[in-house]
Specification:
Order of helices and strands: HHEEEEEHHHEHHEEHH
GO cellular component, one term: cytosol
Pfam family, one: HTH_Crp_2
Protein name: Crp/Fnr family transcriptional regulator
Shape: globular
Keywords: DNA-binding, Transcription, Transcription regulation
Number of domains: 2
CATH topology of the largest domain: Jelly Rolls
Helix content: 40-55%
Strand content: 15-25%
Structural class: alpha+beta
Largest sheet: 5 strands, antiparallel
Radius of gyration: 17 Å
GO molecular function, one term: DNA binding
């Protein structure tokens, strides 16, 4: 899994794309961009924060793990944000285990370079803080969604967000992984996937998901998707 120079890969991260050219150039000169593969653990809970991680393509999950082995996703992160937001609030360690759900690539920026960028470029600090606010919105909406909305609505919203984060392209995601993220049985995920397939909203074959009709998929989701999406930085 080799290092990929940022200049060789498109920059999709919205925090970076929101910056002024001189700030983007600084970040590009300091980051290390690497491939990320589904199942990789990028951060363990309470691990010291040495880098911020900016997904360019792919999806990460901040996971909660119970004593009995059950898991659920606290929040997901794609190209709209970064891992390490607690550093902005004075934290020095990760608050959650962060796992790659959908493969892609991401850029690592050391905490020292992060501090320098925030001190030199107001636009960088502002973009980081705006994302932190968007993540808080996602966390709050997720609590409401998990309590009030159906499994089909939650799955549909997750797939819509994935479609945004993957630039509208197909992506690989197993039913087991989505079930772990949403605390749903695989049989439930399979039934919902079949319903969405029959409606023409998605195609699903051998773990590859393609959103065929966003409007149809959106009709199966709840309002939480719109609230979370509207809080994020716009695409670059």
């Amino acid at each position: 899994m080799g290092t990929l120079p940022l200049s060789d890969r498109p920059v999709f991260n919205r925090v970076i794309l929101a910056l002024r050219p001189e700030a983007q150039a600084f970040i590009a000169s300091r980051v290390e961009t690497r491939a990320i593969e589904a199942g990789m653990v990028l951060k363990e809970e309470n691990e010291p924060l040495t880098h911020a991680i900016f997904p360019q393509l792919g999806i990460l999950s901040m996971m909660a793990e119970m004593r009995d082995g059950r898991t659920v996703e606290k929040a997901s992160i794609g190209n709209e944000g970064f891992v390490g937001f607690t550093y902005l609030m004075g934290g020095s360690s990760a608050v959650s285990r962060t796992v790659v759900q959908v493969s892609g690539y991401a850029s690592w920026l050391s905490i020292e370079d992060l501090e320098e960028a925030m001190s030199r470029f107001v636009c960088f600090r502002e973009a980081m803080l705006r994302y932190a606010k968007a993540l808080i919105v996602q966390l709050m909406e997720t609590v409401a969604c998990n309590s009030l909305h159906t499994a089909e609505q939650r799955v549909s919203g997750w797939l819509l967000m994935a479609n945004d984060r993957m630039q509208g392209g197909s992506f690989n995601l197993t039913q087991e992984a989505l079930g772990r993220a949403l605390a749903l049985r695989r049989a439930t995920i399979s039934e919902i996937s079949s319903d969405l397939l029959r409606d023409g909203a998605i195609s699903y074959s051998r773990g590859q998901v393609t959103v065929l009709d966003r409007d149809r998929l959106h009709a199966h989701a709840c309002e939480c998707y719109d609230r979370i999406a509207s809080a994020q930085l716009p695409p670059g």
